[in-house]
Amino acid sequence: MYIQRHGESEANAKHIFACRTYDPHITETGKIQILSQIEYYSKLNLTQIISSPSKRAIQTSEIIAERLSIPISIDEALLEVDLGKLDGKPESENGNLQLYHNTLEDWFFGNRSKSFPEGESYNDVIKRAETIYQKYSNLKNLLLVVHATFFACLIGMKKAPKDVLDNFLPRGGRAVLENGNWIIHGKEK
């Protein structure tokens, strides 16, 4: 199973949390990030793309699908984590970024019932992630187009991070599940 994070979105560029109600497009930089992955994917004999229904994930999927001539399907379970009250809010305001990081630290290091204010808990996200594993983990020629926080939770099911940010894909980054282990490509050292 291969995973591609969407290219840089308008929200990423402006440092705004985006999950459900705030649904931005990808930027020109995001398009370039995804185009840079085409050569890699063209060697894999991919047969299908399954995408989150968000605009940025669909736009990412369309760039790849158009160049590889493969179909796209949508799976609601791939939506970004519901950040509740943080959705559409700047990272820099009112301790928003600290709330985000604190919630993830709680999730990854034990308190899986804690929710983002008016959003999902880790347990909620893991139900979706388990569905994804059950449906797709044995399919070799499949590409999932996802979001950073959802992927961090997905990978967190298989390995405990030393640091919360260890599990995040960079913008436009990709990962592959090989022999039960996630290998992240494009992560800055």
What does this structure look like?
The chain has seven helices and six strands. The protein has a six-stranded mixed sheet. 37% of the residues lie in helices and 14% in strands. Helix 4 (55-68) links the parallel strand 2 and strand 3.
Assign the CATH superfamily.
Phosphoglycerate mutase-like
Which segments are poorly predicted (pLDDT under 50) over 5 or more consecutive residues?
A: none
Mean pLDDT: 90
Fraction of residues in H or I helices: 25-40%
- Second rung of CATH, namely the architecture: 3-Layer(aba) Sandwich
Q: Strand count, sense and closure of the main sheet?
A: 6 strands, mixed
What is the element layout, followed by pairings?
Blueprint: E1 2-5, H1 10-14, H2 28-35, H3 38-42, E2 48-51, H4 55-68, E3 72-74, H5 96-108, H6 122-136, E4 142-146, H7 148-156, E5 174-178, E6 181-185
Parallel strand pairs: 1-4, 2-3, 2-4
Antiparallel strand pairs: 1-5, 5-6
Which key features would you list for this structure?
globular, six-stranded mixed β-sheet, 189 residues, Rossmann fold, alpha/beta
